[in-house]
Amino acid sequence: MAAIKSFSAAHPGDPQPGDLIEIFRPAYQHWALYLGDGYIINVTPVDEGPPATFGSAKSVFSRKARVRMQLLKDVVGNDTYQINNKYDGTYTPLPVEEIIRRAEYLIDQEVSYDLLGNNCEHFVTLLRYGEGVSDQANRAIGAIGFVTVAAGAFSLLGLLRSRSRERQY
User: Fold this and answer.
1) What is the pLDDT of residue 117?
2) 3-state helix/strand/coil string of 1-50
3) 41, 113, 140, 159: least buried by Cβ within 10 Å?
4) pLDDT at residue 123 greater than cutoff 60
5) In the annotation, is 122 catalytic?
6) Which of 23, 76, 120, 124 is flagged as catalytic?
7) Cα(83)–Cα(89) distance, integer angstroms
């Protein structure tokens, strides 16, 4: 555990088995679940070519993911992370032994992946709480809905303006 402590000293908190780890990538957050001894479990894109990471554009279009057990420090790389069990007030965490057992069962399994409906945050919250939730996906869905409504409103305004011009002549 000495290597973990030196790694953790540069990052906030000392993760415990079953903790949710939020990793801050340049354009989004990646999520993992801490297993212990410096290891996490997370999902990475399935690809026939060179290994992809969820830091690549490939991950947005991927429909499948592989469950991986990796060192936290390797997954974080030059990014930062925090322990973020943010749903503990809403959902009761499963017993740590059950979380770890469920996680270990899935290592190296191929799972479906969907950026909005079944992403890395859904995956780790399903392990921790028995329920897959994702604020990140909900925000994205809300943004898509807003853009769709705004585009519809502008189209309607354009149609009304063109009809009012037609009547004037």
Assistant:
1) 66
2) CHHHHHHHCCCCCCCCCCCEEEEECCCCEEEEEEEECCEEEEEEECCCCC
3) 159
4) yes
5) no
6) 120
7) 15
